[in-house]
Amino acid sequence: MPGPPPAANVNGLAIAALVTGIVCVLPPLGMVLGGLALGRIRKRGERGTGMAVTGIALSLVSTLLVVAGIATGTFRDVSDGMREAVDEVSRTRSTFDLRKGQCFDSPGGIAEAGSADVTIVDCAGPHDGEISGSFTITGFGAWPGDEAVEPLAERRCEALNTAYAVDGWAVPDNASTYYYQPSKESWAIGDRSVTCAFAAEEGKLTGSVRNDGTSLDRHQIAFLEPVNRIDAVLWEEPEADVEDDRKANVAWAGKVSATLSTTAARLRAHPWPSAARKPVADLAAELEAARKHWAAMAAATDPDTFWEHYEPAYEALPPDLGARARGALGLDVTPPPGFADDSGGSDEAAGSDGTDST
Predict the structure, then answer these.
(1) N or C: which terminus of the chain carries fewer CB neighbours within 10 A?
(2) Domain residue extents for the chain
């Protein structure tokens, strides 16, 4: 007795039409595949009519939705939103990953940045901070504590910031030194990096604060580097008066005297452009005259002699440290607020008040 006839094969195009309709890949393709499948099914007696019809129906609905989306702009909005999201993710970084020259925003402002994500932004627009460099802490095994890390970070970041913005007069008034340092927890997993930055104490920074060898010419650098050292050494004045710590005070006065002498010599040695020669020579002469008072302070064997030269030493320093020479060299000629009134000491606001542990 003969067996039952073999079952008809399921048409492959019908299966493809159904799958295409379900997953909405190229919606019109499902209708094309479904139409071809129906024709072959009729000719070959194959199965799959239901799948082909379902695929055509689903593809038709998908095609209508695509047309409606294009007509109303919905797809464009979705596409734009996806691009914005991808762009936002690509610009989001941890403070661990920030690199020199990058400008960034912090969602909660600079004081809330911590180790949270920040967003890299164009330095030309408003931003919370700009990275000036980073360094790795060495010489410690176990966590040394904030009392050891903070002074190191403050000192090294001040140096990196000075190298990043050689002309301090061109730095915005609301920019101060800021840094991200390891925390006890991050130290335990190997974090030894300190990231240094200029950050907005209030409002925002606009435009890069960077001015170094990438933007300054050789004459500007030759002027700024030695003159900057004068301001730096003046800030090293001991907190204790000479009556309480004569050794530290006379050592500091000796350092100032040596810095003034070295600066004057370097200014005289450089081949300046013609317009800058006289103002630079005048500045060198003023520095040399002031140096004599600082040398007398350094040689003082008693507090009275030290104080006798203290005010004359400061008064002999050019109050603007060479604004005429700056103008001749094309540098900023407007001193920072209070520059002429500064009398040494340490800028507490530049470090410990602007730090964060990562």
Answers:
(1) N
(2) 12-72, 238-342
